[in-house]
Amino acid sequence: MQNVAMIISPRSSGASQIASTVMATRLFQNIVHCVTQQQTTAALEQRIDIICCPYPHKASELSPLLKKLREHDEWRDIPLLLFAPSALQNNRIKALELGACDCLALNMPCREAAVQIGWHLKNKHRIELLRRSEADLARKAVTDGLTGLFNRRYFDADLDQKIALAHRTGRPLTLLLADLDHFKAVNDTHGHLAGDQALQCFADLLKNSARKSDVVCRFGGEEFVVILPECDAEQAYQAAERLRAKVFRHDFGFPLTVSIGLAATSMNCRYSPLQLLKHADLALYNAKERGRNRTEIFPAPFTGDLPATVHLSHRSHSRGSSLPQALRRSIAALRKAARYSFN
Q1: Distance CA 18, CA 25 (A)
Q2: Which of 24, 94, 196, 337 could bond 135 through an S-S bridge, CB–CB 3.0 to 4.6 Å?
């Protein structure tokens, strides 16, 4: 990885002096010179490891640059070094007050420049590594390890947000709850490894069948859930039937089908997240009772009496179990820091 330094100076003489000092450190393989604000903006879109400027005559000269660097998180991490004719302590203090990381002398010895600039460069790389680690941890906190889909924690938080948005805008939202039929028999007959592979294949079918706006999650075990914004029950039913047909035709190495329950909220029929999830679960229970390998929509007439403890009770969805604030911040960090994910 090549280190790139950006020198911002409207005065060519100042830029050449700074370039000589920076290049003498042998820490950088490329230097980008910027004179105008447009050039600075264009350069920041590329990878920049350090920014160097002449010490300003007036504090206002740095204001546009500092404002630009605050626009993106990754730009804020780029060290800003000011270069003055002499290394006066007062210059360094003033530079820190202005928002720069340090103030160096143009005539400082090469070895000292290498040490000082190298420290800021290493610190910037450490911050990048921490951001990548933070993004990776945030991703793992909301991702199911087996299927790569979002997990139950992410679902709980996102359903709250999606339903609140649907209620504000008056737009429909449908919840799809899918359960693989007789999956315990698959594990008992073919082994848990084959069962895991089947779950992964179904997750891929589900993800590839979803729209970009849909939120696909593994609810737990062989159950999966999809949040479908801007989608009413009839549209969701058609999508669910297409998914069910794909699963029926797919070669898992053994016969496998899926039962699906749907529940919708709209401007005329508003439900809380807990209510919507219970309704989708009741519809799924009805699909199971009617022979499996089918899609049911809530409300629907049920065949027989519901058990005292309904299907959802073993994984109750309550306000007490909703996502803590710290994890909500992790989800936000994941969305903002996608650019830092490991390759």
Answers
A1: 11
A2: 337
Q: Express each pLDDT in 284-317 by its tens digit.
A: 999 999 999 999 999 854 444 444 334 443 344 4
Q: Is residue 220 part of a domain?
A: yes
Cα–Cα distance, 128 to 171 (Å, whole number): 40
- Kindly give, in sequence order, each residue whose CB lies less than 8 Å from that of residue 175, ignoring residues fewer than 6 positions away: 159, 225, 226, 227, 228, 262, 263, 264, 276, 277, 279, 280
Instruction: Based on the residue annotation, tell me whether 222 is a catalytic residue of this protein.
Output: yes
CA distance 222 to 226: 14
Is residue 282 located within the same domain as residue 162? Answer: yes
Q: Which residues pair with 260 in a beta bridge?
A: 178, 295
DSSP state of 319: G
Same domain flag for 174 and 317: yes
Predicted confidence band at 12 (pLDDT cuts at 50, 70, 90)?
A: low
The C-alpha angle 229, 230, 234, rounded to 5 degrees, equals: 105
Q: What are phi and psi of 315, to 5 degrees?
A: -140, 65
Instruction: List the domain range (segments joined by +) for residue 118.
Output: 4-140
Q: Measure the N-to-C terminal CA separation of the chain; round to a whole number of Å.
A: 14
What's the CA gap between 286 and 292, in Å, rounded? Answer: 9
Helix ranges (DSSP H) in the chain: 12-24, 37-44, 63-69, 73-76, 89-98, 110-141, 152-169, 183-190, 192-209, 233-249, 273-289, 325-336
Q: Which two tokens stand for residue 133?
A: 């680690």
Q: Catalytic residue, from 61, 128, 222, 289: name it.
A: 222
Question: Quick one: pLDDT band at residue 329, thresholds 50, 70, 90?
Answer: low
User: Measuring CA to CA, which residue among 155, 131, 129 is closest to residue 141?
Assistant: 155
* Pair 249, 256: CB distance under 8 Å: no
pTM for the structure as a whole? 0.69
CB neighbours of residue 259 within 10 Å: 24
Sign of the Cα torsion 230, 174, 140, 329 reads positive
**343 in a structural domain:** no
